[in-house]
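Try this one yourself first.
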């Protein structure tokens, strides 16, 4: 009788080969399964991947969205009640159905502070699950003020925030509008937008403590107003770096045309002199109006501003990237996943099947 046993060294080598072949097949099949669906509408969400919701019987506009840690989707904007606009908030389950545990058992919440028009432009979710809306509220002089509202996880107003869950802040005597909100790691709330000084608009920035009071360690009164060249500035987006510095992105009127504008502030509200020229960067993208509408920070610290640029009477997508300070996560090494025993066995089985097929093909030749 001839022994067909394999030597220990060959057996180890053979097992490694099986695992390698199985791993290759396992990863390839899994990658094909995932990549094939990228970009397709998700049929498990709403109707064919789409959801349309009526808040009241007139116009409803959504301006901002955030995802809770449990996968639920929160959307903020405004709804018209017949005569005025009001803050509107809706929460959806992961499948796109309205979350009946939110609001008045219908997944929707409508809020008005003073029976004047209000518009929610930005949304953020705190680490404790509370929801922040930021935008503008009309005062009785027909001008808008910065407006914030905070909600508990069930959609009720958080009475521990401001007055009955609401905060309204005036910068000057005319329009003040929040366009963006961001949360610091210490729980403080940063909002950015614009304020009118009587002649033109300027960047408006405010920081609040977690209870809704203005943070007086921020420029003395919690408010900062910045203008680049006395022609008009509009801030549309705010982001906070890992070192706590604050980025505002928007547009600055450059004697006739708007250009991308990016300002950086220190944690005390002063402009960061190490950034651009005196803390400011203004960039012309094309020959017409260029408006920066959103800012994001890469893991390597580079800053991306997007918006639109005028091109012969029409507007095109526009993106600009700036050098920035690397964040802690930018130097992180790639994570390594260790396969579990069932995964290893699956790899071995896949390798056996592959090699069996290979030798079977050879034997048939």
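Now uncover the answer:
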């Amino acid at each position: 009788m001839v022994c067909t046993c394999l030597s220990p060294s060959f057996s180890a080598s053979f097992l490694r080969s099986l695992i390698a072949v199985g791993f290759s097949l396992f990863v390839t099949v899994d990658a094909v399964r995932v990549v094939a669906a990228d970009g397709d509408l998700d049929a498990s969400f709403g109707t064919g991947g789409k959801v349309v919701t009526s808040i009241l019987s007139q116009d409803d506009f959504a301006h901002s969205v955030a995802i809770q840690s449990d996968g639920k989707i929160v959307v903020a904007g405004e709804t018209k009640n017949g005569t005025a606009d009001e803050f509107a908030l809706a929460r959806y389950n992961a499948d796109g159905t309205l979350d009946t545990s939110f609001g008045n058992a219908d997944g929707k919440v409508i809020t008005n502070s003073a029976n004047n028009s209000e518009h929610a432009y930005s949304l953020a979710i705190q680490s404790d699950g509370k929801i922040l809306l930021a935008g503008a509220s009309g005062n009785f002089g027909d001008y808008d003020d910065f407006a914030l509202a905070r909600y508990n996880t069930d959609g009720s107003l958080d009475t521990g925030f401001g007055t009955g869950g609401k905060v309204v802040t005036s910068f000057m005597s005319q329009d003040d509008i929040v366009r963006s909100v961001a949360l610091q790691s210490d729980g403080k709330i940063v909002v950015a937008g614009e304020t009118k000084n009587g002649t033109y608009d300027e960047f408006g920035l405010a920081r609040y403590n977690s209870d809704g009071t203005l943070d007086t360690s921020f420029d003395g009164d919690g408010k900062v107003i910045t203008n680049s060249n006395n022609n008009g500035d509009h801030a549309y987006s705010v982001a906070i770096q890992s070192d706590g510095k604050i980025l505002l992105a928007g547009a600055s009127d450059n004697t006739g045309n708007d250009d991308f504008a990016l300002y950086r502030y220190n944690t005390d509200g002063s402009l960061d002199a190490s950034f651009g020229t005196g803390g400011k960067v203004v960039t012309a993208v094309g020959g017409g109006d260029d408006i920066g509408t959103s800012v994001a920070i890469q893991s390597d610290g580079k800053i991306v501003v997007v918006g639109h640029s005028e091109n012969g009477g029409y507007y095109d997508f526009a993106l600009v990237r700036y050098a920035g300070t690397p964040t802690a996560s930018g130097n992180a090494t790639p994570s390594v996943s260790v396969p579990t025993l069932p995964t290893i066995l699956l790899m071995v089985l896949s390798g056996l099947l592959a090699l069996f097929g290979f030798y079977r093909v050879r034997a048939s030749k």
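Discussion: The first strand starts at residue 60 and ends at 67. The radius of gyration is 27 Å.
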